[in-house]
Amino acid sequence: MWITNLPPFVVFFVFALFAPVLKGRLRVLLLLAPVWGGLNLAMTAADSGGVTWQFTDLILDLYYIDRLSLLFGYLFHIAAFIALIYSLHVKDSVQQVSGLLYAGSALGAVFAGDMLTVFIFWELLAVTSAFLIWARRTPEAIRAANRYVVIQVLSGVLMLTGVIMLYQQTGTLRLAYIGLEGTAAWLIFIALGIKCAFPFFHTWLTDAYPLATPTGTLYLSAFTTKVAIYLLARTFPGEPLLIYIGAAMTCFPIFYAVIENDLRKVLAYSLINQLGFMVCGIGVGTALALNGAVAHAFNDVIFKGLLFMTMGAVLTRVGHVNGSDLGGLYKTMPRTTVFCLIGAASISAFPLFSGFVSKSMVMAALLEQEQIIVWLMLLFASAGVFHHAGIKIPFFAFFAHDSGLRPKEAPLNMQLAMAIGATLCILIGVHPEWLYSLLPWENDYSPYDMTHTLTQLQILFFSALAFVWLNKQGLYPPELRSVNLDVEWLYRRLLPSSGRRMVNSLVSARSSFRRNARIIADQFARRSTPMPTGTVTILTRRMAWVFIALMLLVVGSLVL
Amino acid sequence: MSHQHEDKGLFDDPRVVTWILRVFYVICAALVLADFIVHRHIYTSLEKIPAFYAIYGFVACVLLVFAAKGLRNILMRKEDYYDPEVGQNLKTKEDDQ
């Protein structure tokens, strides 16, 4: 029955083939994909023989397994399982198919043993995920998906160039530590950086994620960026530059998140903030820090997914997620409210919730390395993330002023998916040793000592106190229907408008040239009609032509 | 958690909100007091400041909000800045229902 050493992506790709046929209640069968895939993974994990694919004289390593890829493998199976339950009610088979292909591509990239296989799945990730945004089918979503695809494919092209250069230098395609030296390494680094949403490369994420379908955003939040984190951990661990990039990533998005109105966009910004913690941990590069980074990636998929699911439920029922037009939804969506609060507690790293057990590892690793300034930045970001994701999201959506909206509670399958996510958040928070036992590096870390718990509670409660105080004083910025400028302005405004100006000037130059040419042509045309008669006139006309030809010859010889 | 049969929810009652806030203030005070009682591991000299984390959390958030409000003056544009049709179809139903 079990096909041993089946590369995990195959299962998902096969199910994607059948997805359009499975309608109505039969859609439940799609859940077999992550279940079967997960069992297959668990059973073959012990003997990691590997599967290769010969392609002329190149051998592609489709299935390479170690503790790091296995952790992400399990994570992606869980994420796909939750996302499939969440999308059971969706009738649009485009989303089912692209969701499965997308999850499969992520698994393919994670279990790839060489850089070329990584590249293939890197591009598949880009294309399959874009359909989840196109599937929203609003004009703005379609345009956002187009921009998204361009940037994602650009990342792939950079990666391919880097991989080819690296192959020429080293003669091997093996996926292993690279380190930042030489052009090839930098190209791969930037390719990873784009998908990891490094500052200035991050706007594809905040642009496209809030515009996907509810299911689409859930899938998107789980895979692309986490594959990038996995590859960073594999190829650039301990790169000091990553510490500073990560610290910047934790801090700058929270300013945007405070003033952003679209609550899914707030979550997109806080996704970058969480990625910052992971990038920082990879930059530190000690066993504790790397464990912290991948553990945080694991938890982030689940709690960020949970938060996106709750906002997706609101979007499904209300039709929008603008903080300015929501409020009081706890009355009719009580369960979604509770799930959102659990997600909020997890992302803010409350003790006994999942964020606490992984974020504290990164923080502790920074203290061990005496990176005090970066540590202070991350502490600032921790307070900030509680402020916007922990308080603002639940407060403005479910409490705050009564918007008068009385939507129904989320569909049952959505509630079930949220319940699974919420349970995992609490289970991992209460029993972190389950997650710790899966971590790739040797380390004995215990998050629940008095100091950690007390200091974390202090920082969280006083962040909340700041929120309460600012609200009471009327100092808290109101939610306004607006859009905030970001780096995307460069390619959504500056580039098109300067391009348009250039096209306009070219068009006007062409039309003025045509006008002048027509005037000259008219001159000749007028002379030719009425037909001149008499030998002298005809001679004069021929003489004129000869004269012009001579002049052209003279000018030509002078120029040359 | 909520009264399904009537329009007023639990948190619309100002007395409930007041009580929640009172409990919250007491917890805040308790956390600061605990700082003086519990022995805390010190990793950096900054942490020797009494209730360092509480002060840092509060100040960080207030500064964050003020800075973000300031940023609004520079960054905020109308909702239809990039896409003219945004905001007009606010209440349209989702496609994938």
TrEMBL record, chain A:
Membrane topology summary: Multi-pass membrane protein
Domain of life: Bacteria
Major subcellular location class: membrane
Name the record gives this protein: Na(+)/H(+) antiporter subunit D
Domain NADH:quinone oxidoreductase/Mrp antiporter transmembrane: 112-382
UniProt KW keywords: Cell membrane, Membrane, Oxidoreductase, Transmembrane, Transmembrane helix
GO cellular component: plasma membrane
InterPro entries linked to this entry: ComplexI-like_HydComp, ND/Mrp_TM
Transmembrane segments: 6-22, 29-48, 68-88, 100-125, 145-167, 179-201, 241-259, 266-289, 301-318, 338-357, 372-400, 412-430, 450-470, 543-559
Location of the protein in the cell: Cell membrane; Membrane
Entry GO MF terms: oxidoreductase activity
Signal sequence coordinates: none
Organism of provenance: Salinimonas iocasae
TrEMBL record, chain B:
Keyword list, A-Z: Membrane, Transmembrane, Transmembrane helix
Residue intervals passing through the bilayer: 20-38, 50-68
Protein's name according to its UniProt entry: Uncharacterized protein
Taxonomic source organism: Salinimonas iocasae
